[in-house]
Amino acid sequence: MGSRNQRNRRSGHLRRRSARGLRVHPVRPRRRAGIAHRPDHHRLRDARRHARRRHPHRWRRNRGHPCRPDRHRRRGRGRPRRVRDDRGPAPPRGEGGRVSILRRALPAGALAAAVAVAVSACTAPGEPADGSADDTVAAASAFLAEYVDDGRVVRTDQGGDTVSEGQAYGLLLAVAADDEPVFDRIWEWTTENLQRDDGLLAWQWQDGAVVDDQPASDADLDAARALVLAGDAFDRDDLREQGIALGASLLDRMTAETALGRILLPGPWAEASPHAYNPSYASPAAYEVLAQASGDERWNELAAGSRAATDALLEANPLPTNWATIGADGSVAIAGSAGGGGEPGYGYDAARTPIRYAESCDPADRALAGRIATALPDSATLAAELDSGAGSITTDQHPVAYAARAAALAADGRADDALADVQRMSDTAASTPTYYGAAWNALAVAMLNDDVLGGCPPLRDAGAGAAPAPAGDAGTATGAAAGLQNPVAPRQASTARPVHISIPAIGVDSGLIGLGLGGDGWIESPQDYDDIGWYEDGVLPGEIGPAVIAGHVDSPTGPAVFYDLPELATGDTVSIRRADGTTADFVVTGLQTVEKDTFPTESVYAPTPTPELRLVTCAGAWDSTTGHYVDNLVVTAVAA
């Protein structure tokens, strides 16, 4: 990283003001509002979970769908909203304000908090886990609060359009949240704006009108499932009957008989053989819900045919692909698109396949999901898109990718590994919130941990327990330490103190000092601006749980040791050497800039089932009235 003088020269502008410390707060039983900045401290404030701002730090677009140009391209990260910053200008920042002023959304924080709590294990060994229903409600409600506008599920990060898939997700999550009024508003909007004369749902609506009236079977299937479940949950025969009717229309218009059995077509346009086939559209749990409600034997035929088709496709390629073809004679082939062209790949569509099969109550379906686990990469960092041979084709990460691997691992009986991926799903959803990521983050909580959607949740059934008491319930504290100091019982690789940190991507190669608590209850900040400190009353780096490491971003004379922290990217490595010579290695999974006044304690410091790091420094705009930066930058890294 160079000497301090070298960094000063690089910064180009040296500020003339007093030092700002780190003020990291680990334990606070109640919110302490209105505390003036102190020159030797820096605080991470308790979460209020009322921040409405978003902070995606990257966005991407996928290649288009040959039949529906925007559909599958838009399932990626999406374009972040523009963020209005009305707090006044930032101070001169050496290289033009290198720390972006990003904001956190309530649903991202609430979702992350719900899932982070869900995958921790604060209950005593052997104690039955409880509260999974509460976590499902919290995650579902957070999605509904952010993306539903008067019954319309808005893809806010993708141009503000609405698709039938999103309406169906909203219906399922309204059931999961036990929110009948929201369910009614979503279904009313759907029937008024998307439902066709044949009862199926037009796929896309934008700027006040339907722009693509072709139905998509995954959306109609999810919506029919949600209607039947809502009819039971809310004691509404009208909803139940509408779900049965929608399902019957789907069976009539969007299924086909093949030598493998009855299969689900992606739309009426795919009725000619060889049929375009999307493996992720099949939903065994939905088939069972609708079979029980309607008594229509075709649902059981569809379940058997989908299982046979998926089995044949996994024989052809161990990893499910976004698209495939199935002939009337039962022949199968993987494909790169609905039209058959392009390179086959595993991406935002295919990732749903193991989730849908893992929640099935049929052991044969779960076995298919478990087979997928062996085909996926086992590295801590998982790319959002893979080629058909499981090679990464992007550096992007996405919640649905981690949810998919978690589902496959759970179906394979590897609950601990699955829970680690659920945490990574949560972290990714928090650092890069999008419509599609938030939807599958919430759906995964329900499908993998709760039976509210009519499936058999593999994590709950495996005894993994996805809903222990919240971290703040472990004692009287409700601040950061409630998640920081009470993770699951550590399986210590080493009890030796950390003595050195290396972050090659930004040239950090430094000793580590211990940071304790000051007399006022705040974590002490390093006295030297080039020192990096580890909170020694918390988790040892390498133990299970989030270990906290803090450093200054700048000094009165220029950049400090963590000045380049915002330059880190997913996949960068962090190594911690301990006093006994052992090393704990970590991989960066995300960066988030959060307001100190609304610091999301629950998601950042929640207990984790694997060793993780939180690298913390100051960020955002300089507030001359208070004499400190308004934000914190938090880098999340997981064990390599």
From TrEMBL:
Region described as Disordered: spans on this chain: 1-99
A Gene Ontology biological process noted in the UniProt record is: carbohydrate metabolic process
Which UniProt keyword terms apply here? Glycosidase, Hydrolase
Pfam families assigned to the protein according to its UniProt record, in alphabetical order: Glyco_hydro_8, Sortase
The record's section on Gene3D superfamilies has: 1.50.10.10, Sortase
InterPro entries (UniProt xref)? 6-hairpin_glycosidase_sf, 6hp_glycosidase-like_sf, Glyco_hydro_8, Sortase, Sortase_dom-sf, Sortase_F
**Where along the chain is composition biased (Basic residues)?**
1-82
Q: Name one GO molecular function term.
A: hydrolase activity, hydrolyzing O-glycosyl compounds
Keyword Hydrolase annotated: yes
Family, as annotated: Belongs to the glycosyl hydrolase 8 (cellulase D) family.
Provide the protein name. Answer: Sortase
Q: What organism does the UniProt record list as the source?
A: Microbacterium enclense
